[in-house]
Write a sequence for this structure.
């Protein structure tokens, strides 16, 4: 009982799972892509452009669904191993919700450009990707969002951590959560944590997802209510 109470106090210290930095999003910024969005999460910002469904090279053509490709560009320099790993996670997440069977033998390309990284970059990329696909009008089975959790040396869970908080954390977990059943589409971890701590981070991320999905709705409503 004492251990359970201690864990609850840690969650309470973490803000009940909804201590997120302010969000900002603008869709339709770029004219050439079929869909685009700029997503700001605290001081972390990502610009995304989506192309397709479009003609695909024969070598990449899939007969039963659209071929999905994700390109992540860092703020400076060339993409490295970290960017390639994040590209794979972003692609798997997008493929889980995009109804690619409606566009066989086509290609969908998602290009993300990091503008600034002040922590929780992967979750910001996930949120930007979702808003970009919404702007392009792609058929989706559900929306998704990204939430990053950090566990500090004292075991306190921090949602949407900054760069400094990530550097001080002993574990960082990022979840991609769908909007219909709050299921985990993809997840990635860095560092060490217990199974209990991972479950607590997931619960906090699922609660925080409600805030992000509400932001999605408000953002799209504001855009299309302008006359």
């Amino acid at each position: 009982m004492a251990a359970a109470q201690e864990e609850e106090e840690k969650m309470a210290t973490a803000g009940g799972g909804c201590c997120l930095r302010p969000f900002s999003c603008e869709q339709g910024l770029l004219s050439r892509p079929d869909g685009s969005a700029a997503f700001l999460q605290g001081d972390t910002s990502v610009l995304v452009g989506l192309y397709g469904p479009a003609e695909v090279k024969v070598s990449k053509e899939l007969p039963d669904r659209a071929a999905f490709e994700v390109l992540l560009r860092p703020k400076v320099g060339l993409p490295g191993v970290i960017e390639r790993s994040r590209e794979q996670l972003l692609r798997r997440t997008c493929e889980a919700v995009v109804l690619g069977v409606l566009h066989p033998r086509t290609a969908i390309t998602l290009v993300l450009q990091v503008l600034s990284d002040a922590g929780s970059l992967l979750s910001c990329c996930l949120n930007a990707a979702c808003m970009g696909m919404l702007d392009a009008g792609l058929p989706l089975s559900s929306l998704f969002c990204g939430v990053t959790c950090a566990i500090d040396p004292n075991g306190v869970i921090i949602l949407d951590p900054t760069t400094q908080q990530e550097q001080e954390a002993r574990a960082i977990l990022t979840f991609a959560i769908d909007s219909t059943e709050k299921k985990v589409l993809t997840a990635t971890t860095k560092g060490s944590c217990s199974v209990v701590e991972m479950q607590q981070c997931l619960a906090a991320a699922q609660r925080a997802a409600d805030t992000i999905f509400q932001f999605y709705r408000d953002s799209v409503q504001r855009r299309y209510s302008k006359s």
Summary: The helical segments are 2-13, 81-97, 121-136, 163-168, 195-225. The chain has a mean pLDDT of 84.
